[in-house]
Design goal:
Mean pLDDT: 94
Radius of gyration: 16 Å
Shape: globular
Number of domains: 1
CATH architecture: 7 Propeller
CATH topology: Methylamine Dehydrogenase, Chain H
Number of strands: 20
């Protein structure tokens, strides 16, 4: 089945080339740049940078958790060890409370107010974690996950099928019952990374276009 393209609302220039991680804090957006190992806070309406800090590794996925962010960082250079770090807004990264990603694998994050969700792209699954990093359950997806968010108890994902694939889709998963449901609901005509939600619309990054893209939440 051919999906309809996402309904774009607005594009904002990224604060850095080829953005990777993104999360929304109301009308503010947090963006991580993998290539420069920097984290930015920007105003969605103008693209103005109001905060910038170096990350302790290459930031991949990130999510707002109250007055802080959790950030998946690739560390130790080519060894690419994955940790979930805590960033306190207005202060910076906190040392000593890093969570090692299970199986040393993790890309993108979501948070529902209680649980933290970590996607493992090449293992095709989502892990539900406590805030201390204890594994609660595993949710198989069957595709590579390049973005994740929880809205109304449902997972929304950006998915693809390989590094060379140009087929990028928006999918929805209801994993609350005994029988998980998976549905692909839209396509992207660019390479998306991450998902954020500002309360009315979804956001992602156009990685190769170095832009942040807002689009309508499909019904």
């Amino acid at each position: 089945m051919t999906q309809t393209a996402i309904e774009e609302i607005v594009r904002v220039a990224s604060p850095a080339h080829r953005p990777m991680g993104l999360s929304c804090d109301g009308t503010d957006i947090w963006v991580g740049c993998y290539e420069t190992s920097r984290l930015f806070g920007i105003r969605a309406a103008t693209g103005a940078i109001f905060e910038e800090n170096a990350a302790p590794g290459r930031p991949i996925g990130l999510v707002v958790t109250g007055d802080a962010l959790r950030v998946v960082c690739s560390e130790n250079g080519d060894d690419d060890h994955r940790f979930i770090r805590r960033y306190v807004m207005g202060h910076g990264f906190k040392t000593g409370d890093a969570i090692a990603c299970p199986d040393d694998s993790g890309s993108f994050l979501a948070y529902d107010g209680d649980a933290l969700y970590l996607s493992q792209r090449f293992l095709h699954r989502i892990l539900e974690l406590t805030e201390r990093g204890t594994l609660v359950r595993t949710i198989p997806v069957g595709h590579q996950i390049t973005g994740i968010i929880v809205i109304g108890g449902l997972f929304y994902l950006t998915v693809t099928d390989g590094n060379e694939s140009t087929n990028h889709r928006l999918a929805r998963i209801d994993a609350r019952g005994e029988r998980q449901t998976y549905e692909e609901i839209a396509r992207f005509d660019f390479l998306p990374r991450s998902l954020g939600y500002d309360g009315t619309k979804l956001w992602t990054t156009d990685r190769e276009g170095s832009e942040l893209v807002a689009f309508a939440l499909p019904t």
